[in-house]
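Supplementary Data S3. Sequence and structure tokens for construct A.
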Amino acid sequence: MPSPMLPRTPMPIHRRPPEPRDHLDPAPAATSEAIEGPRNPEEGVPLSGTAPRAPVRTCIGCRRAREQRALLRVARTPDGVRFDPDARLPGRGAYLCPDPDCIAAARRRGAGALRRALKGIAEGEATVALDQLENHVVYHQVPAGTVRSENA
């Protein structure tokens, strides 16, 4: 049987009386330092409490955490798995160091790490993506001791 509804009694409201505003100091004048923060005199740029951090990703070959821009991306797109040299393709991505040893390590593991990172791709697709990545790394790798010239 439902309980009978009792009439609601209003709760007492306890408010503090407002404080007089005449005892407050006037607001300080806005200066460029107050607005932008202190400036480094050598660089002329505002300093902040912390510097912005670059995104960090883990290489699926060597498992080292590095800045995202230092790694190469493989993406699972609606068209399939592809090497993404500009890191702009839509879809889920996995990252590898631009080092043939890391690609070889990912390949040695049967492309399992790449398949896990991209969630549900076939081993053949993973192998093709690693081939594309390896071709890019080998083609763009500069041999040790080679000096790049502006005129070449």
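Construct B, processed identically:
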Amino acid sequence: MHKSDRPLAISALVLAALALLLILPRVLEREHRLPVERLECPQSPVRCQTLLDGEPWQLALLPATLPAMQTLSLSLRLPEYITLRQAYFEGADMDMGRHFLQKLEPVMPGQYQAQGMIPVCSVNQSMSWQLVLLVDDATGMRQIVWPLGPSSQEGS
């Protein structure tokens, strides 16, 4: 890069950062306006078979103890007409940020696998967590909230 190109590059970078600062709040605000549905799984918070909109959903997280700061594996089976866009962990009662699951991949139509971690909460050792799924179907985007309960502090 020539010295004469540096001011132009810096200006472009500053403009891109400003554009991001202006657009990002609108994108996040739109997500908060999505319809929200809760998955209730009284039999087990980490292994669930339930009906949502009259259709079967199956979710499983391993290990079942939800250890903080260790890899958790998610297996998910949804109706085939629903597309999973994002999945993340967040605090149920305290803002601990969003902890996105990685390697979110369809194994076959309607089946997904992903991996993620729940962080350690130094304020509340029995902090409750939830998994948020952003899904898309013919009616549009919506959030599915799956309450998980507290993580274990083993290995932290």
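The first helix runs from residue 6 to 32. The chain has one helix and ten strands.
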